[in-house]
Amino acid sequence: MITADDVGGVHVKYLYHCPRQLWLYARGFRPEHLNDAVQLGTAVHELSYSRFSPVDLGAATLDHLDNQLWVHEIKHSAKRREADRAQARHYCHQLVRIGVDVQGAVLHYRNPRKTERFPYTDDEHQKATEDIDRVLDIVAQAESPPKLGRTSCRGCSYLDYCWSQ
Amino acid sequence: MPATSRTYWLTTPCRLRRQDDSIRVERDGHPPTFLPIEDVRDIIAAAEVDLNTSMMSLLNKHRIQIHILGYYGDYAGSFLPAETAVSGTVALNQMRLASDDEHALPIARALIDNAAFNIRWVIDRKLLTRSYGVLKESIAEATTREQLMAAEGNFRRNAWEALDTKLPDWLQLDGRSRRPPRNAGNAVISYINGILYARILSALRLTPLHTGIAFLHATMQRHRHSLALDLAEVFKPLFAERILIRLANRRQLKPQHFDINTNQAMLSESGRKLIVQTVRDDLAETVKHRTLGRNVSYDELIYLDALALTRTCLEGSTYAPFRVWW
């Protein structure tokens, strides 16, 4: 199974979305590219924010790191989600781990054209470390975690897999 | 499965070229047509087709498969893009399940049972009641795959006979024959089965399942993608037998749709077109799904069945193959 170094942004995001999704994703079942919304998101991503240059951290890839060492993440949805924050927090954590003194994260909500800043504090660092442990815990489970309620699965790329009996 | 892209069917001989990021289709006596690459999920070539390397790399980049049917409408081969949906866990579990009879036999049994159920639904419920009962008994007793296959063979023979009673004389099967099919009815069934096999392979390639590891068909046979044969069992009746009966009843199939020699029969070009169009329209037919709560096309049912098998390999859930419910 995976180690702490392999935990990427998507793992943390799925941890907040749905543990079952994380469990399946970690086992290599990744039907995302078949999802219409994901395809649209990828296309929009390619066309917007052209001044951003992605940074590859191995397990994780973040959208942009500016000169003042703020991590930038683009979000296509207008809705503020805890998962988005957790993902950005995880990137900060990864950067700190390799010795980059990051300031924090900036989330760009593309649809309302709003940004939100989250300075990377000790408290945030603590949370990011806990998230990684929780990811590893869930992935190591022998049995798949249960499904969420039907309504929370709307728009998920694993919906067909989980709900077609 | 992405709703934005679709299957393209080639029914006339043509050459495929790459022009920028589009596919340029050249046919004799026609101006070239273009297929926007984003719109293509896979291509089924039911007629002679010419391809070159740059075409192949374009197809590979966009994960598009092309399936080629041979002269007799049999499955001749595929160009499959590099494997992208790989999962070691799924492949390992699939292998474990398939190689252990304790796990493989229930899956094989379910496949045969549901296939027979579907055949009976398509052909005649009453005529096949007895044979279905016999089949159920013998698959319950069977302890090897060979016994299962034999029981299925017996049921199939009865089903072909029952099918003949529904067809006009000239379309009757008189026993199933392949490579080459002996008469018109057999030619239709072979042709549709070939198309279906290609479609199932496409669906399987969207999941992390290994197409070479099967539960019912012996993995060592000449066919490379035995798992596609497994899934085909339950879907064949929904398309092949059903379409043959329908086209016969509506008198849509005519002798000019076939080239018949003394010992073999094949579809003529107009016949191929008719069958391809019918299958294509049938694949787009929708039914309301019971647990997803939305309409799904027959085409998508194949994909959902592949997902169900993935679920079995990943989480150990019981596999219930496709069974007509409407």
TrEMBL record, chain A:
Keyword Nuclease carried by entry: yes
Single annotated GO MF: exonuclease activity
Name of the protein in question: RecB family exonuclease
Domain DUF83, residue spans: 9-164
Keywords: Exonuclease, Hydrolase, Nuclease
Source organism phylogeny: Bacteria, Bacillati, Actinomycetota, Actinomycetes, Pseudonocardiales
Organism: Actinoalloteichus fjordicus
Pfam name, any one: Cas_Cas4
InterPro entries: Dna2/Cas4_DUF83, PDDEXK-like_dom_sf
UniProtKB/TrEMBL annotation, chain B:
EC class (word): hydrolase
Cofactor: Mg(2+); Mn(2+)
UniProt protein name: CRISPR-associated endonuclease Cas1
Species in which this protein is naturally found: Actinoalloteichus fjordicus
Subunit annotation: Homodimer, forms a heterotetramer with a Cas2 homodimer.
Underlying gene: cas1
Entry function: CRISPR (clustered regularly interspaced short palindromic repeat), is an adaptive immune system that provides protection against mobile genetic elements (viruses, transposable elements and conjugative plasmids). CRISPR clusters contain spacers, sequences complementary to antecedent mobile elements, and target invading nucleic acids. CRISPR clusters are transcribed and processed into CRISPR RNA (crRNA). Acts as a dsDNA endonuclease. Involved in the integration of spacer DNA into the CRISPR cassette.
Family statement: Belongs to the CRISPR-associated endonuclease Cas1 family.
Keywords: Antiviral defense, DNA-binding, Endonuclease, Hydrolase, Magnesium, Manganese, Metal-binding, Nuclease
InterPro entries: CRISPR-assoc_Cas1, CRISPR-assoc_Cas1_C, CRISPR-assoc_Cas1_HMARI/TNEAP, CRISPR-assoc_Cas1_N
Amino acids binding Mn(2+): E152, H217, E233
Keyword Manganese (UniProt): yes
Pfam family, one: Cas_Cas1
GO molecular function: DNA binding; DNA endonuclease activity; hydrolase activity; metal ion binding
EC number, UniProt record: 3.1.-.-
UniProt GO BP: defense response to virus; maintenance of CRISPR repeat elements
